[in-house]
Amino acid sequence: MQCKPPSEEIAHKTTLAILNKLLKYSWEAKASLTLAAFAMECGESWLLAQLRESDYLAKSIAILKRVPILLKPLELPKRKQSILELNNLIKATLQVIECIDQFNKLSIYDPKDVPGLSIALDHIPVDVYWTIMTVVACATKITILTSDENKEFDLSPYSQKIHYVLNKLKIQLIVCRKQIGGLLVLIFFFFE
């Protein structure tokens, strides 16, 4: 999933390849599956890296899977800010997926009655693209952080974009809930 060499162009191509592989899935599933694959890949790598010194089989599997040697404890404080930035970006990405899930739950309503829902649902493919692009960038950053190379890969453009998407989705959820509330009031008065 990570990009080598790290660049926005390669992250874009990787994102399109992921979207192509997940063509048959819903937009929410595409984002969720990508994040799940990322979590599984990172978790497996972390476990193999931890076990490689004490378990011969883990060491062999780690070599076959090209699991990087994790940072020495003395190097962790130097990279603390990068790790925190990465953690916050992953959390924001998860929140975007949760918002998309909320829109899917609201899709039981007719977009004619809830115009805000139509606007949100039309934009979800673009939001999922940026979600997957951000996950790819995070995977690349983890690879860089766990290697001995001193490459720089700035996550701030991805962070800015995913936070913009998150804020936009939250605002649109508020709009939709207000519209649904108004609709329910009308239905209540109509049947009373």
Short recap of the structure:
The protein is mainly alpha-helical. The chain has helices spanning 8-21, 27-51, 56-64, 80-106, 115-145, 156-191. This is Putative sieve element occlusion.
Structure in words:
The chain has 192 residues and is mostly helical. The protein has one domain. 74% of the residues lie in helices and 0% in strands. Pfam families: SEO_N. InterPro entries: SEO_N, SEOA.
The chain-level mean pLDDT equals 83
The major sheet is characterized as: none
How many strand segments?
A: 0
Strand content: under 5%
Structural classification? mainly alpha
SSE string, helices as H and strands as E? HHHHHH
Low-confidence stretches: none
Protein name: Putative sieve element occlusion
Pfam families: SEO_N
Domain Sieve element occlusion N-terminal: 1-181
GO biological process, one term: phloem development
Structure characteristics:
74% helix; 0% strand; mainly alpha; 192 residues
Task: Walk me through the topology.
Blueprint: H1 8-21, H2 27-51, H3 56-64, H4 80-106, H5 115-145, H6 156-191
Helix pairs in contact: 1-5, 2-3, 2-4, 2-5, 4-5, 4-6, 5-6
Protein name: Putative sieve element occlusion
InterPro entries: SEO_N, SEOA
Pfam family, one: SEO_N
